[in-house]
Design a protein that fits this description.
Strand content: 15-25%
CATH topology of the largest domain: FAD/NAD(P)-binding domain
CATH architecture of the largest domain: 3-Layer(bba) Sandwich
Distance between the termini: 46 Å
CATH class of the largest domain: Alpha Beta
Number of helices: 13
Oligomer: single chain
Largest sheet: 8 strands, mixed
Helix content: 25-40%
Shape: globular
Number of strands: 20
Number of domains: 3
């Protein structure tokens, strides 16, 4: 066994989007800081290395990536997974050029200040960490290609991950897309874009989800969308009505107006994509798949027929599994988590900024309260509460940085639009805050509240 000794200020475990955004911010804000990045992949980008070839960002590239390097052409433009990986190659070269960052690919952390090579079984690294070990893997992002399906599959059943859809050698009798999250949406859209007849697609949808109109979160529209959300709270009398009002505003969408969504996962679609998805009429709402047999698919609430010529596409990996929150700053350890609802990358950059600007963990954690990724509609309430508290704190503590940060949505709307929007929000703010707390009391049991 060969053991190599290293020294650094920050050991960042995980070189996905959050880990790189944190490292970029620390290196930019503290000109003395040294960073070691470790990842099991051979390149930066985390799960982007495992994603299907037709994947794209689900949010504008204008506020994705790292603060120091622009991604995409700006505005509402999205970018492909290939473009994201190329972007991170540029970012790596830029950070290496500082002379203060080292990247160790194909390495796995042992949970402390050491890691081992996945390429050479006899190579291990032990690190003397001057400041913090940073866990950038806590969010546990998964894609179907890196884990087996969580249900039984009989021999002879044609089941593939979404990665293999572009590699078909002959057309199947039909398609069965299993899963209705972002990956399932992407798989269905990919098939429709290949001119597959919508009636040849069967979509297994264990739970309907509220979808967010992407046009509401593009640069220049963020402040207006925030005003609309505040006004929706002020008008609503309960959680269900809150979602109905946002639906009437055009912010939220659902595939079937007769089905009440039971999930809210921050999935975004354009109106064009939404209309495409509605063309698929064969939607199975019978719970999760338990097993696939040669001639049937057994679900929680019954069975449906299938056949050996059908192609089943597993889209069930939980891209952002619900995790319990923990303090971001704990002595010599930092755990990267979302601080602003569904804005993980921006959150990581905020954590980097706070780490370099403030002294003690109490002060830092007050600015960095984890906002749990929403799963059920009522989780939207807690995520909203924590996100708003954090934003209010940031606007007091680091206002200039917030408006200069490329990853910040406030940056893209500008100060004037923000001030005008704030004036409008002020009229409804007291009612908003009262309604938010009212809905939380109504939706959460006493036992649940103790864990909030």
């Amino acid at each position: 066994m060969s053991v190599e000794s290293l020294e650094t200020d920050y050991l960042v475990i995980g070189a996905g989007a959050m880990g790189v955004a944190f490292a970029d911010e620390v290196l930019a804000s503290d000109k003395t800081a040294r960073v070691i990045l470790v990842d099991k992949h051979s390149r930066l980008g985390g799960h982007w290395n495992d994603a299907y070839s037709y994947v794209t960002l689900h949010q504008p590239a204008a506020f994705y990536g790292v603060n120091s390097e622009k991604l995409g052409p700006g505005g509402s433009a999205l970018v492909s997974g290939t473009e994201v990986l190329s972007y991170y190659e540029r970012v790596l070269e830029k950070l290496r050029a500082t002379g203060r960052l080292r990247f160790f690919p194909l390495c796995a952390s042992d949970g402390d200040a050491s890691f081992r090579s996945l390429a050479d079984p006899g190579l291990e690294y032990r690190v003397k960490v001057g400041r913090k070990v940073v866990d950038a893997t806590y969010m546990k992002v998964e894609v179907p290609s890196i884990r087996p399906p969580q249900y039984a599959v009989a021999e002879g059943v044609a089941l593939i991950s979404p990665n293999k859809l572009p590699k078909l050698s002959q057309p199947p009798s039909g398609y069965v897309v299993i899963g209705a999250g972002k990956t399932g949406i992407d798989a269905v859209l990919f098939l429709l874009d290949q001119a597959v007849d919508p009636d040849r697609i069967r979509w297994i949808m264990p739970n309907d989800a509220w979808l967010f109109d992407r046009a509401k979160i593009v640069p220049g529209e963020i402040t207006e969308s925030a005003v609309e959300r505040i006004e929706a709270f002020a008008q609503a009398e309960n959680l269900q009505e809150l979602f109905r009002i946002q639906e009437s505003q055009g912010s939220l969408l659902r595939l079937d107006p007769a089905v009440e969504p039971t999930r809210y996962r921050c999935a975004t679609v354009s109106l064009e994509e939404f209309q495409k998805l509605k063309r698929v009429r064969n939607i199975v709402r019978m719970g999760r798949v338990k097993r696939i047999e040669p001639n049937s698919i057994v679900l929680e609430e019954g069975s449906i027929p299938t056949d050996s010529e059908a192609l089943h596409v597993d889209c069930t990996a939980d891209g952002l599994a619900k995790r319990s929150t923990r303090p971001v700053f704990e002595g010599d350890r930092i755990t990267l988590q979302s601080l602003s609802m569904c804005q993980q990358v921006f959150s990581a950059s905020v954590i980097g900024q706070v780490e370099t600007r403030f002294e003690n963990d109490q002060e830092k954690n007050a600015l960095c309260q984890p906002a749990p990724h929403p799963y059920r509609p009522k989780d939207y309430l807690i995520a909203t509460r924590v996100s708003n508290q954090n934003v209010a704190s940031w606007l007091r503590a680091i206002p200039r940085w917030i408006f200069r940060s490329r990853l910040s949505m406030f940056h893209h709307d500008g100060l004037l639009k923000f001030l005008l929007g704030s004036f409008r929000m002020r009229k409804s703010m007291a009612t908003f805050e009262a309604k938010l707390e009212k809905f939380i009391r109504e939706e959460y049991s006493d036992a649940e509240k103790t864990n909030l």
